[in-house]
């Protein structure tokens, strides 16, 4: 099969012929129809985490998000009993985003655990579905993770009351949730907040040109502020200087993390999409509220090594991912996909075009001087390539 493989000596990737992976127990083989790009895919191509060449055995296949059709089911451990050949599914892998060797998604076929994919509804295209898995799980982990913002996930079977140690506890009053970077590819945060089993007042910061659609369903922000304005002052005014209950920084670069932290209540909770160890943001003073970070890769249930961190395999994080994708499978149109920008050229153009648009570092450092329609700056959309 053809796949996009890492060449770490030249800090690039090339399309190469590689063997199709053997299936382990509980895995399925997927014919990939579409792939979606994430900044991390470009980052660890231009700044590789481990040595690899196209001749490595096995090669390091790049890429995270994919959508396709079940081609074959491996030996069953009952986890794949719900799937059959021909089913349309989507998921994500950890291609070259860890020191550990694991194949990625940018290939004609991928082998993937059958309980870490979700069924694509008839109302959704392969291209749209390819954009959901990684960013959707990222947002779900941040909002519903017990060590993150701690909202009650929609797949938790509860009534309108919370039961704890036999005591009935009424739901708390509406809490404020501030999303910095409301129009980024983590747009699922707002949608998932509306699915949470409590009342949320949703506040967002984004470019004003996105306000119109962010105010509509399924995002339905209660209040929006332009990130180019004095948004800190506006948030303070909105909260009557009391501070925010919850915040999710979907940019997590530069001084943004500090700025958001200063707007929190003393007992508030804040989540970020990038760790301080990754160098995207710096701490110049003690933060009023310490942000929580979690690597989306933990959802795959494997050990993760990157940026000097060693995250052991986390069964709870994997179980969370399984529950999230099962919830999506039950009604995949619960989440509206990102706006998709179709990129021409297939695998051969991912590095030349897609990765050039995403860049190798911060969002604020992205520069583009090409004139093609598909090479305009990225804003509130996902770059997607069709492979079939």
From TrEMBL:
This is Enoyl reductase (ER) domain-containing protein. The keyword Ligase does not apply. Keywords: Oxidoreductase. It comes from Lithohypha guttulata. One of its GO terms (molecular function) is oxidoreductase activity, acting on NAD(P)H. Residues 4-362 form the Enoyl reductase (ER) domain. Belongs to the zinc-containing alcohol dehydrogenase family. It holds the Pfam family ADH_N. It comes from the Eukaryota. Coiled coil: none annotated.
């Amino acid at each position: 099969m053809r796949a996009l493989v890492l060449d770490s000596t030249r800090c690039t990737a090339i399309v190469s012929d590689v063997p199709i992976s053997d299936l382990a127990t509980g895995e399925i083989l997927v014919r990939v129809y579409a792939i979606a790009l994430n900044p991390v895919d470009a980052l660890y191509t231009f700044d590789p985490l481990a040595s690899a060449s196209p001749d490595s055995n096995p090669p390091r296949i790049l890429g995270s998000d994919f959508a396709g059709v079940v081609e074959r089911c491996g030996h069953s451990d009952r986890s794949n009993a719900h799937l059959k050949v021909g089913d349309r599914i989507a998921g994500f892998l950890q291609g070259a985003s860890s020191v550990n060797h694991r194949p990625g998604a940018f290939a004609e076929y991928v082998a993937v655990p059958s309980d870490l994919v979700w069924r694509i509804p008839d109302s959704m295209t392969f291209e749209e579905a390819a954009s959901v898995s990684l960013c959707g799980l990222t947002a779900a982990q941040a909002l519903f993770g017990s060590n993150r913002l701690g909202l009650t996930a929609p797949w938790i079977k509860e009534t309108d009351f919370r039961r704890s140690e036999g005591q009935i506890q009424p739901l708390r009053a509406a809490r404020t949730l501030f999303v910095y970077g409301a129009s980024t590819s983590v747009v699922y945060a707002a949608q998932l907040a509306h699915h949470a089993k409590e009342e949320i007042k949703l506040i967002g910061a984004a470019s004003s040109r996105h306000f119109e659609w962010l105010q509509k369903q399924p995002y339905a922000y209660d209040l929006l502020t332009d990130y180019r304005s004095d948004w800190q002052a506006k948030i303070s005014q909105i909260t009557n200087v009391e501070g925010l209950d919850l915040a999710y920084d979907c940019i997590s670069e530069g001084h943004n993390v500090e700025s958001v932290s200063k707007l929190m209540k003393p007992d508030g909770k804040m989540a970020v999409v990038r760790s301080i160890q990754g160098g995207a943001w710096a701490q110049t003073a003690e933060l009023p509220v310490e942000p929580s970070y979690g690597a989306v890769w933990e959802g795959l249930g494997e050990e993760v090594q990157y940026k000097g961190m060693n995250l052991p395999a986390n069964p709870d994080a994997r179980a969370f991912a399984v529950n999230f994708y099962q919830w999506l499978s039950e009604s995949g149109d619960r989440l509206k996909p990102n706006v998709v920008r179709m990129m021409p050229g297939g695998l051969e153009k991912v590095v030349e075009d897609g990765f050039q648009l995403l860049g190798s570092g911060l969002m604020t450092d992205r520069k583009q001087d090409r004139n093609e329609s598909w090479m305009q700056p990225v804003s509130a959309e996902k770059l997607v390539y069709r492979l079939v």
